[in-house]
Amino acid sequence: VMITGAGVMVAGVALTPLVTGLPGLLVLWAIVGFGFSVSQTPIGRILNRSAQGQDRPADFAAQFALSHAAWLVTYPLAGWLGASFGLPVAPYGLAMIGAVAMIAVLWLWPCLDPTVLAHDHPDLPPDHPHLQGLDHRHVFVIDGLHRRWPTGHA
C-alpha cells in the first residue's frame, strides 16, 4: 500500500510541468495528497510493530524528526532547482529523488515480512524464561533481548 501511494506521489509530481491551468493543478494536488496519505497512514502500524510500548514515544518522535528532516532538505532543493534551472525542471528533479527512494525501499525492505519470527539467542542461558521451548518464535520487536533484526532462521 505504501509503495503504491509513493508511486502515485512520484507520478503526480512528475506530471506537474504538463498541467497548464489552476483546475488541473488542483486535481493533481489532490492526487499527490492522496498518494501522500496512502503512503504515510500505515506508518503507525509499522512503528507499533517495531518497538515495545515504552519505546514507542521515542520511535514516533524519531520518525517525525526524520520525516521533517526530509522536508527540510527537499523544500530548499525545490526552490534551488526552480531558481537555477526553471520551474518546469524542479518537479522532475524531485520526482527523481522520490523514484530513487522508492527503489531503495524496494531493495532494502524484505518482500516477505512476517510478524512472527523464529530466531535464537546464543547469548542467553538455555533456562532463560524468554526462551520457553526449543522452537523459539514470537512477534518480533526490537527491545532489550532483541537488539537487531534477525538475518537468518534459528
Give a brief description:
The chain has 154 residues and is mainly alpha-helical. The chain folds into 2 domains: 2-108, no CATH class; 114-154, no CATH class. It has helices at residues 2-15, 22-40, 43-50, 56-85, 90-108, and strands at 116-118, 137-139.
What do you see in this structure?
The chain is mainly α. The chain has two domains: 2-108, no CATH class; 114-154, no CATH class. 58% of the residues lie in helices and 4% in strands. Helix 1 runs antiparallel to helix 2 (22-40). It starts with a helix and ends in a 15-residue tail after the last strand.
Topology of this protein?
Blueprint: H1 2-15, H2 22-40, H3 43-50, H4 56-85, H5 90-108, E1 116-118, E2 137-139
Antiparallel strand pairs: 1-2
Helix pairs in contact: 1-2, 1-5, 3-4, 4-5
Strand order of the largest sheet: 1-2
The number of domains is 2
Number of strands: 2
Decide which structural class fits the backbone. Answer: mainly alpha
Distance between the termini: 30 Å
Radius of gyration: 21 Å
| Total of DSSP H or I helical runs spanning 4+ residues | 5
Topology as a string of helices (H) and strands (E): HHHHHEE
- Low-pLDDT residue intervals, each spanning 5 or more residues: none
Strand percent estimate:
under 5%
Oligomer: single chain
